[in-house]
Amino acid sequence: LWLVGGCGCPPAVDNGDIVDTPKATYVQSESVTYQCQNLYIMEGSARVTCQNGRWSQTPTCRVACTANEEDMREHNIRLRWSNGNKIYSEDGNTVEFVCLRGYKPHPNSRSFRINCVDGKFDFPVCIPVCIFSEKYYNSPIYLSLSIYLLYTSISNH
C-alpha cells in the first residue's frame, strides 16, 4: 500500500548511517536522522524529511583531517596553540604548527598555517638547527674533558 505523498527508503549517505530504525515506507512529514561514521564530519542537516513523495536534501559526510603524534614527529613540528598530540579538523579549517625546539623551518617548507583540504594536511617541514657555523668547518673543536672533535661538513655544490 503506497500512501499519497509518502516516501520509500531514505537515500544512502556515503560514510553515514541512519540513526533511526529503517522502514520500507514513510508518510508525509516523517523524518529520519543521519550520523557520520568515525572521523567524518557532517555538512548539512542531520534530519531529512519526507515531503510530497521526496526526501529533503541529505547531508554529506566529509572526512576530517587528522594530525597525530607520528605525523608531527615525522615533520619535526607541533601544534602552535595546543599541547595535544592529536587533532581532528574539519575540511576547510586552518591549523597552525611550529617547529619543535632545536628545529627550524626548512627553506622550501610550506606555510605553517595550513588548511584541511579533502581530508588531508600538507604538513610543513622543520630541519635540525646546526649549532656550528660555517667558520668552524674543518676546524678542530675542543669540548670539556679533553675530548677532541674534528667538525667536517660535506656540502652539495
UniProtKB/TrEMBL annotation:
Keywords, A to Z? Disulfide bond, Signal, Sushi
GO cellular-component terms in the record?
Answer: extracellular space
Provide the GO MF annotations for this entry.
complement component C3b binding
Under the heading Gene3D superfamilies, the entry gives: Complement Module, domain 1 (2.10.70.10)
Q: Does the keyword NADP apply?
A: no
Annotated GO biological processes are: complement activation
For whether the record's keyword set contains Nucleotide-binding, the answer is no
Disulfide connectivity for this sequence is 7-50
Q: Which residues form the Sushi domain?
A: 5-63
InterPro entries (alphabetical): ComplSys_Reg/VirEntry_Med, Sushi/SCR/CCP_sf, Sushi_SCR_CCP_dom
Q: Which domain of life is it from?
A: Eukaryota
Q: Which Pfam families match?
A: Sushi (PF00084)
The record's listing under PANTHER family reads: COMPLEMENT FACTOR H (PTHR45785:SF7), COMPLEMENT FACTOR H-RELATED (PTHR45785)
What protein name is recorded for this chain? Sushi domain-containing protein
